[in-house]
Amino acid sequence: MPDSVLPAIATSDGDSGLPAPALAAMRGFVVESLAPATRRAYRVGLDAFRAWCEAVGAASMPATPETVAAFLAAEAGLGRSVSTLEQRVAAVRWLHDAAGVETPTAAKLVRATMAGIRRELGVAPKRKAPATVERVLAMASHADAATRKGMRDRALLLFGFSSAMRRSELVALDVADLEQTDAGLLVTLRRSKTDQEGRGRVVAVLHGRNVETCPVRALAGWLETAGITADAIFRRVDRHGNVGEGRMSDRAVADVVKTHAQRAGLDPREFAGHSLRAGFVTSAAERGAKTDRIMDVTGHRSHAMVRTYTRRTDAFADHAGTGLL
Hints:
Blueprint: H1 13-16, H2 20-32, H3 36-56, H4 65-77, H5 82-99, H6 108-121, H7 133-141, H8 148-163, H9 167-172, E1 178-180, E2 184-189, E3 201-206, H10 215-226, E4 235-237, E5 243-247, H11 250-263, H12 275-286, H13 291-298, H14 303-314
Antiparallel strand pairs: 1-2, 2-3, 4-5
Protein backbone atom coordinates (compact mmCIF):
# COMPACT_ATOMS: atom_id res chain seq x y z
CA MET A 1 0.00 0.00 0.00
CA PRO A 2 1.59 3.30 -1.08
CA ASP A 3 1.60 5.90 1.66
CA SER A 4 3.87 8.83 2.41
CA VAL A 5 4.06 7.66 6.03
CA LEU A 6 5.66 4.32 5.16
CA PRO A 7 9.23 5.29 4.27
CA ALA A 8 9.90 6.70 7.73
CA ILE A 9 8.69 3.66 9.68
CA ALA A 10 11.40 1.28 10.85
CA THR A 11 14.48 3.42 10.26
CA SER A 12 17.01 0.63 10.55
CA ASP A 13 16.03 -1.54 7.58
CA GLY A 14 19.61 -2.32 6.79
CA ASP A 15 20.30 -3.67 10.28
CA SER A 16 17.07 -5.59 10.83
CA GLY A 17 18.09 -8.66 8.86
CA LEU A 18 14.50 -9.04 7.67
CA PRO A 19 13.63 -9.44 4.00
CA ALA A 20 12.14 -6.45 2.21
CA PRO A 21 8.70 -8.10 1.63
CA ALA A 22 8.35 -8.78 5.38
CA LEU A 23 9.24 -5.18 6.21
CA ALA A 24 6.78 -3.89 3.61
CA ALA A 25 4.00 -6.07 5.01
CA MET A 26 4.78 -4.91 8.54
CA ARG A 27 4.64 -1.26 7.51
CA GLY A 28 1.35 -1.81 5.75
CA PHE A 29 -0.27 -3.27 8.85
CA VAL A 30 1.13 -0.49 11.05
CA VAL A 31 -0.54 2.10 8.82
CA GLU A 32 -3.75 0.05 8.66
CA SER A 33 -3.99 0.40 12.43
CA LEU A 34 -5.15 3.97 11.78
CA ALA A 35 -8.63 4.94 10.70
CA PRO A 36 -8.70 6.18 7.06
CA ALA A 37 -9.52 9.75 8.09
CA THR A 38 -6.74 9.74 10.70
CA ARG A 39 -4.34 8.31 8.14
CA ARG A 40 -5.12 11.13 5.72
CA ALA A 41 -4.71 13.77 8.43
CA TYR A 42 -1.40 12.29 9.60
CA ARG A 43 -0.14 12.12 6.03
CA VAL A 44 -0.83 15.82 5.52
CA GLY A 45 0.76 16.71 8.85
CA LEU A 46 3.87 14.62 8.33
CA ASP A 47 4.34 15.92 4.79
CA ALA A 48 4.24 19.46 6.19
CA PHE A 49 6.67 18.53 8.97
CA ARG A 50 9.16 16.90 6.58
CA ALA A 51 8.98 19.83 4.14
CA TRP A 52 9.64 22.33 6.93
CA CYS A 53 12.53 20.29 8.33
CA GLU A 54 14.09 20.02 4.88
CA ALA A 55 13.75 23.77 4.36
CA VAL A 56 15.54 24.61 7.63
CA GLY A 57 18.05 21.77 7.46
CA ALA A 58 16.74 19.81 10.46
CA ALA A 59 16.25 16.07 10.82
CA SER A 60 12.60 14.99 10.81
CA MET A 61 13.27 11.42 11.89
CA PRO A 62 14.18 11.11 14.65
CA ALA A 63 13.33 14.69 15.50
CA THR A 64 14.46 16.69 18.52
CA PRO A 65 12.03 18.53 20.83
CA GLU A 66 13.54 21.82 19.64
CA THR A 67 12.73 20.92 16.03
CA VAL A 68 9.12 20.00 16.81
CA ALA A 69 8.57 23.08 18.95
CA ALA A 70 10.00 25.39 16.29
CA PHE A 71 7.85 23.69 13.64
CA LEU A 72 4.71 24.24 15.71
CA ALA A 73 5.59 27.90 16.24
CA ALA A 74 6.10 28.32 12.50
CA GLU A 75 2.78 26.63 11.72
CA ALA A 76 0.98 28.82 14.25
CA GLY A 77 2.50 31.84 12.50
CA LEU A 78 0.88 30.64 9.27
CA GLY A 79 -2.54 30.76 10.90
CA ARG A 80 -3.05 27.05 11.59
CA SER A 81 -5.80 26.30 14.08
CA VAL A 82 -5.11 24.78 17.49
CA SER A 83 -6.85 21.55 16.44
CA THR A 84 -4.66 21.30 13.34
CA LEU A 85 -1.51 21.80 15.40
CA GLU A 86 -2.63 19.18 17.91
CA GLN A 87 -3.09 16.83 14.98
CA ARG A 88 0.44 17.64 13.80
CA VAL A 89 1.77 16.73 17.25
CA ALA A 90 -0.18 13.46 17.23
CA ALA A 91 1.18 12.58 13.79
CA VAL A 92 4.80 13.16 14.83
CA ARG A 93 4.21 11.17 18.03
CA TRP A 94 2.67 8.28 16.12
CA LEU A 95 5.51 8.21 13.60
CA HIS A 96 8.18 7.97 16.28
CA ASP A 97 6.23 5.40 18.30
CA ALA A 98 5.73 3.26 15.19
CA ALA A 99 9.43 3.40 14.44
CA GLY A 100 10.31 2.38 18.00
CA VAL A 101 12.26 5.55 18.81
CA GLU A 102 11.78 8.05 21.60
CA THR A 103 9.11 10.59 20.73
CA PRO A 104 10.08 14.26 21.06
CA THR A 105 6.49 15.33 21.63
CA ALA A 106 6.53 14.29 25.28
CA ALA A 107 9.26 16.81 26.08
CA LYS A 108 8.39 19.76 28.31
CA LEU A 109 9.49 22.18 25.58
CA VAL A 110 6.92 20.84 23.12
CA ARG A 111 4.15 20.73 25.72
CA ALA A 112 4.94 24.30 26.82
CA THR A 113 4.92 25.49 23.22
CA MET A 114 1.48 23.99 22.64
CA ALA A 115 0.22 25.45 25.92
CA GLY A 116 1.34 28.88 24.80
CA ILE A 117 -0.29 28.45 21.40
CA ARG A 118 -3.58 27.41 23.02
CA ARG A 119 -3.49 30.42 25.30
CA GLU A 120 -2.69 32.75 22.41
CA LEU A 121 -5.10 31.36 19.83
CA GLY A 122 -7.84 29.94 22.03
CA VAL A 123 -9.32 26.47 21.68
CA ALA A 124 -13.05 27.01 21.25
CA PRO A 125 -14.09 24.79 18.32
CA LYS A 126 -15.94 26.29 15.36
CA ARG A 127 -18.77 23.81 15.08
CA LYS A 128 -20.98 23.50 12.03
CA ALA A 129 -24.70 24.02 12.40
CA PRO A 130 -26.77 20.91 13.08
CA ALA A 131 -29.21 19.86 10.37
CA THR A 132 -32.12 19.54 12.78
CA VAL A 133 -35.30 17.77 11.73
CA GLU A 134 -36.91 20.96 10.41
CA ARG A 135 -33.79 21.86 8.45
CA VAL A 136 -33.21 18.42 7.00
CA LEU A 137 -36.83 18.21 5.85
CA ALA A 138 -36.44 21.58 4.15
CA MET A 139 -33.23 20.40 2.48
CA ALA A 140 -34.81 17.14 1.31
CA SER A 141 -37.79 18.98 -0.15
CA HIS A 142 -35.46 20.67 -2.63
CA ALA A 143 -34.05 17.39 -3.98
CA ASP A 144 -35.57 16.78 -7.42
CA ALA A 145 -37.34 13.41 -7.18
CA ALA A 146 -37.62 13.34 -10.98
CA THR A 147 -33.87 12.74 -11.35
CA ARG A 148 -31.61 9.99 -10.11
CA LYS A 149 -29.27 12.43 -8.47
CA GLY A 150 -32.19 14.06 -6.70
CA MET A 151 -33.44 10.67 -5.51
CA ARG A 152 -29.98 9.83 -4.20
CA ASP A 153 -29.56 13.15 -2.44
CA ARG A 154 -33.00 12.92 -0.83
CA ALA A 155 -32.27 9.40 0.41
CA LEU A 156 -28.86 10.47 1.68
CA LEU A 157 -30.26 13.41 3.62
CA LEU A 158 -33.18 11.55 5.22
CA PHE A 159 -31.32 8.29 5.87
CA GLY A 160 -28.15 10.09 6.96
CA PHE A 161 -30.13 12.07 9.52
CA SER A 162 -32.19 9.14 10.80
CA SER A 163 -29.22 6.80 11.15
CA ALA A 164 -26.97 9.50 12.68
CA MET A 165 -24.03 7.93 10.85
CA ARG A 166 -20.73 9.54 10.12
CA ARG A 167 -19.97 10.43 6.51
CA SER A 168 -17.44 7.60 6.24
CA GLU A 169 -19.99 5.12 7.55
CA LEU A 170 -22.66 6.21 5.07
CA VAL A 171 -20.46 5.87 2.00
CA ALA A 172 -19.13 2.49 3.18
CA LEU A 173 -22.58 0.88 3.32
CA ASP A 174 -23.47 -2.03 1.04
CA VAL A 175 -26.89 -3.44 0.18
CA ALA A 176 -25.97 -6.56 2.14
CA ASP A 177 -25.76 -4.42 5.28
CA LEU A 178 -29.52 -3.76 5.19
CA GLU A 179 -32.14 -5.94 6.85
CA GLN A 180 -35.79 -5.05 6.35
CA THR A 181 -38.15 -5.46 9.33
CA ASP A 182 -41.71 -4.37 10.06
CA ALA A 183 -40.44 -1.48 12.19
CA GLY A 184 -37.81 -0.27 9.73
CA LEU A 185 -34.26 -1.16 8.75
CA LEU A 186 -31.54 -2.83 10.75
CA VAL A 187 -28.25 -1.57 9.35
CA THR A 188 -24.98 -3.32 10.09
CA LEU A 189 -21.92 -1.11 10.34
CA ARG A 190 -18.92 -3.31 9.60
CA ARG A 191 -16.39 -0.76 10.82
CA SER A 192 -16.48 2.77 12.17
CA LYS A 193 -14.25 5.45 13.67
CA THR A 194 -14.60 3.98 17.16
CA ASP A 195 -14.53 0.34 15.98
CA GLN A 196 -11.26 -0.09 14.13
CA GLU A 197 -11.11 -3.83 14.86
CA GLY A 198 -14.26 -4.32 12.81
CA ARG A 199 -16.45 -5.91 15.49
CA GLY A 200 -19.42 -4.11 13.96
CA ARG A 201 -22.65 -2.77 15.41
CA VAL A 202 -26.27 -2.55 14.30
CA VAL A 203 -28.24 0.68 13.91
CA ALA A 204 -32.05 0.73 13.75
CA VAL A 205 -33.63 3.20 11.32
CA LEU A 206 -37.35 3.68 11.91
CA HIS A 207 -40.05 4.17 9.31
CA GLY A 208 -41.06 7.82 9.09
CA ARG A 209 -44.46 9.08 10.13
CA ASN A 210 -45.08 10.47 6.64
CA VAL A 211 -44.61 8.55 3.41
CA GLU A 212 -43.02 11.57 1.73
CA THR A 213 -40.28 11.93 4.34
CA CYS A 214 -39.75 8.31 5.39
CA PRO A 215 -36.01 7.51 5.29
CA VAL A 216 -36.66 3.80 4.67
CA ARG A 217 -38.91 4.52 1.68
CA ALA A 218 -36.52 7.14 0.36
CA LEU A 219 -33.63 4.69 0.46
CA ALA A 220 -35.67 1.95 -1.18
CA GLY A 221 -36.77 4.38 -3.89
CA TRP A 222 -33.17 5.33 -4.63
CA LEU A 223 -32.00 1.73 -4.85
CA GLU A 224 -34.88 0.80 -7.17
CA THR A 225 -34.42 3.85 -9.40
CA ALA A 226 -30.68 3.28 -9.66
CA GLY A 227 -31.06 -0.48 -10.18
CA ILE A 228 -28.75 -1.20 -7.27
CA THR A 229 -29.11 -4.72 -5.89
CA ALA A 230 -25.65 -5.32 -4.45
CA ASP A 231 -22.48 -3.59 -3.28
CA ALA A 232 -22.30 0.15 -2.64
CA ILE A 233 -25.53 1.97 -1.74
CA PHE A 234 -24.56 5.61 -2.18
CA ARG A 235 -22.83 5.96 -5.53
CA ARG A 236 -21.64 8.66 -7.84
CA VAL A 237 -24.15 10.04 -10.35
CA ASP A 238 -22.88 12.06 -13.31
CA ARG A 239 -24.60 15.12 -14.78
CA HIS A 240 -26.41 12.90 -17.28
CA GLY A 241 -27.96 10.82 -14.51
CA ASN A 242 -25.75 7.79 -15.05
CA VAL A 243 -25.09 5.82 -11.87
CA GLY A 244 -21.51 4.67 -11.49
CA GLU A 245 -20.02 1.68 -9.75
CA GLY A 246 -17.89 3.80 -7.45
CA ARG A 247 -18.93 4.96 -4.02
CA MET A 248 -19.50 8.57 -3.13
CA SER A 249 -16.63 10.14 -1.22
CA ASP A 250 -17.17 11.49 2.26
CA ARG A 251 -16.51 14.97 0.86
CA ALA A 252 -19.34 14.44 -1.63
CA VAL A 253 -21.69 13.89 1.31
CA ALA A 254 -20.72 17.33 2.62
CA ASP A 255 -21.32 18.81 -0.83
CA VAL A 256 -24.84 17.36 -0.91
CA VAL A 257 -25.64 18.85 2.49
CA LYS A 258 -24.25 22.26 1.52
CA THR A 259 -26.03 22.29 -1.84
CA HIS A 260 -29.43 21.53 -0.39
CA ALA A 261 -28.90 23.84 2.58
CA GLN A 262 -28.42 26.67 0.11
CA ARG A 263 -31.51 25.65 -1.86
CA ALA A 264 -33.49 25.69 1.39
CA GLY A 265 -32.41 29.28 2.05
CA LEU A 266 -29.75 28.41 4.63
CA ASP A 267 -26.12 29.53 4.65
CA PRO A 268 -24.17 26.60 3.16
CA ARG A 269 -21.01 27.73 4.95
CA GLU A 270 -22.67 26.83 8.25
CA PHE A 271 -23.22 23.19 7.28
CA ALA A 272 -21.13 20.10 6.54
CA GLY A 273 -21.56 16.36 6.24
CA HIS A 274 -21.41 16.04 10.02
CA SER A 275 -24.44 18.31 10.31
CA LEU A 276 -26.78 15.35 9.70
CA ARG A 277 -25.39 13.40 12.66
CA ALA A 278 -25.32 16.49 14.86
CA GLY A 279 -28.85 17.33 13.79
CA PHE A 280 -30.18 13.95 14.89
CA VAL A 281 -28.60 14.28 18.34
CA THR A 282 -29.84 17.85 18.76
CA SER A 283 -33.37 17.06 17.59
CA ALA A 284 -33.62 13.91 19.70
CA ALA A 285 -32.42 15.79 22.79
CA GLU A 286 -34.89 18.62 22.17
CA ARG A 287 -37.68 16.04 22.17
CA GLY A 288 -36.57 14.60 25.48
CA ALA A 289 -34.71 11.48 24.35
CA LYS A 290 -32.41 10.04 27.02
CA THR A 291 -28.68 10.27 26.39
CA ASP A 292 -28.25 6.50 26.60
CA ARG A 293 -30.89 5.98 23.91
CA ILE A 294 -29.25 8.59 21.68
CA MET A 295 -25.93 6.77 22.13
CA ASP A 296 -27.58 3.52 21.02
CA VAL A 297 -28.07 5.15 17.62
CA THR A 298 -24.92 7.23 17.30
CA GLY A 299 -22.48 4.71 18.76
CA HIS A 300 -20.85 7.31 20.99
CA ARG A 301 -18.93 5.72 23.84
CA SER A 302 -19.15 8.55 26.33
CA HIS A 303 -21.87 10.84 27.59
CA ALA A 304 -19.41 13.72 27.37
CA MET A 305 -19.28 13.51 23.58
CA VAL A 306 -23.06 13.59 23.29
CA ARG A 307 -23.11 16.56 25.65
CA THR A 308 -21.08 18.57 23.11
CA TYR A 309 -24.17 18.47 20.89
CA THR A 310 -26.86 18.87 23.54
CA ARG A 311 -25.26 21.57 25.71
CA ARG A 312 -27.04 24.41 23.88
CA THR A 313 -30.33 22.50 24.02
CA ASP A 314 -29.99 22.01 27.78
CA ALA A 315 -28.79 25.54 28.51
CA PHE A 316 -32.22 26.76 29.65
CA ALA A 317 -33.48 23.50 31.20
CA ASP A 318 -33.79 23.66 35.01
CA HIS A 319 -31.92 26.96 34.91
CA ALA A 320 -30.61 28.15 38.28
CA GLY A 321 -32.00 31.59 37.58
CA THR A 322 -35.57 30.46 36.92
CA GLY A 323 -38.02 32.74 38.76
CA LEU A 324 -35.40 35.00 40.27
CA LEU A 325 -36.61 38.14 38.49
